[in-house]
Amino acid sequence: GAGVSQSPRYKVAKRGQDVALRCDPISGHVSLFWYQQALGQGPEFLTYFQNEAQLDKSGLPSDRFFAERPEGSVSTLKIQRTQQEDSAVYLCASRLDRGIINEQFFGPGTRLTVL
Amino acid sequence: KQEVTQIPAALSVPEGENLVLNCSFTDSAIYNLQWFRQDPGKGLTSLLLIQSSQREQTSGRLNASLDKSSGRSTLYIAASQPGDSATYLCAVNRDDKIIFGKGTRLHILP
Prior knowledge:
The structure holds 2 protein chains of 2 kinds. Chain A has strands at about 5, 10-15, 20-25, 30-35, 45-50, 55, 65-70, 75-80, 90-95, 105, 110-115. By secondary structure, chain A is mainly β. In chain A, a hairpin with a 6-residue loop joins strand 4 and strand 5. Chain B is built from no helices and 11 strands. The interface of A and B includes residues 41, 42, 59, 93 and 108 of A.
C-alpha cells in the first residue's frame, strides 16, 4: 500500500516568497504531524493534527508558519515571507491511532532552500 | 524538557565489525523509543520500536535495548556491512511528540 507522500520533493524560494508544502498521509490515518529538520540536526516537532483539529502547534517557530488539514486528510504547511533560516527538510508523518503500537510513519520530506 | 543525546556523533568502522550506538534521554516518562535510519537526502526509515514496557527488540542484525529507569538505549549492529552506512537517529515518543537526537553518522569501511 502507499505510504506517506509529500510534494514537492524540492523547493527553491527567493527570500520573501510564500511557499506551500503538501502532505498526503496514509489512507485512514487519524493523526498527522509536521517536523522540521535543519542540516546536521535531528527533526524537530512543528505541529500535530487529529483529524481536522490542530491539537498542538507549539513547535511552529513564528507566525509566518501556518498549517491546515481542513478535511482531516491532506495537510498543507504554509510559510509566508520565507527567510534563509527556514531552509530545511520538512517531514510529515501520519499515525493510525488504533491498536497498541502508536507508530508514526514518515514521508520522504520536502527540501526547502531559501535564497 | 525532554532532551535526547546520541554518542558518538560520527563513527567509522571496518566492514564486519560489531558496533554499538548509544542514546540517552532526560525524562523517563516515555511511551516508546524508536531507532530510525536516514540516508543522505532521504526520509526516515523506522528500524526498531521499543514500547516503554519492553526491554529490547531485534530485527535481523539489529538489536535495540531500552533501560527506561536510567534513560538509556543502545542499538547493536552485528557484522556491519557497507550498506549500513547512514545516519542513525534515536527518538522518544511522549505526549504525541517525537523528540529526536541529532543522530550518529555511521560509515562502514569496505
